[in-house]
Amino acid sequence: MSNFKTRILANQEISPGYWRMRIQAPGAVADCRAGQFLMFRVQLSLLPLLRRPFGIFRTGFQPSDVDGLPPVEYLEILYKVVGQGTAMMSELHHGDRVEILGPLGRGFDGGEPGRRKILVGGGIGLVPLYMLAEQLVDGSEVRLLMGGRTRDDIIVVTEFERLGVQTYVSTEDGSLGDRGLVTAVLQQQLDADPDAEVFACGPLPMLEAVYGICRQRQVPLQVSLEALMACGVGACLGCVVKGVGHSETSPRFLCTCKEGPVFRAEQLAW
Length: 270
Ligand code: FES
Description:
By secondary structure, this protein is an alpha/beta fold.
């Protein structure tokens, strides 16, 4: 984990309200694991912008702007504009300075050999699943079930397809893919293949429904939780969730930032 000041290489709106930011990040390709996140802060801002957590979407190299210099290593985040902080982020441009702390947290493990892998993403929850898919396609059949309210919420699915992932899209209003919830697609998939295992990230109601479906069928499940985070390193306890066995007399809390954000379903008190 490191704290470093760096610069933005690109920042682009990819769907209404959804943005993709590429940040120069030496060492990212070797250091970042699927499911990890970073804390992001705009540097030199006059407004007091707190650090905010963002899942790492992908890492890579791009050619240098300057002839003869080696390729530039980067990481990418995807974000949705939901308030003042993310609105400010959307106004940043190539070359603007930012401060990053990361990579942070525990990511996905590769799951159990021999099982088909089903990734379930809800809206911006798709972000941590891309690097997981990159890792899993080498040796497993991987499917992505992507859900959103409307077609605007369905982002970067073609990039999963380029990895060789089979993709299934559903929207609540039927504007793209099947009409309905992504969890209905998950049920169909698991009815056809009860030996699969599931990796999910999205809003909590979706994760609770995914948990219920997987538990009923005794299908292994890993989830990446979204949480409000102030420090990102286990110091403030602002991100805790209840662990399995939690009770008022015997509280068991887990730090989403340090012990997660990825948990095996059986670690959590649902
Ligand atoms: Fe501070 Fe997790 S964000 S402990």
